[in-house]
Amino acid sequence: MMVKQQYTVSFVTPAFLGDAEQNGAWRTPPFKALLRQWWRVAAVEEYNYDHARLRETEGRLFGNAWIEPINGKSQFCKSRVLLRLGSWSKGGLASDKWPGGSVEDVVTTRDGKGRVRADVYMGYGPVMPPSKKENRPRITIRNAISADDSRKLCLSFDQNSNDTFFSTLQLIQWFGCLGSRSRNGWGSLLLESAQENTPDLSVLPQADNAILNRICLPWKRCLEKDWPHALGTDSDKPLIWITERKADWRKVIGCLANIKVEVRFAAKALQGPAGIGGIHLLGYPAGGKWELKKLGAEARLANQLRFKVLKIGEGFMGIISHFPCKFPDELKLKLDDKQRDWIDRNEHLVWEKIHSSLRNNKRLKPLF
Question: How much is the pLDDT for 212?
Answer without folding.
Answer: 98
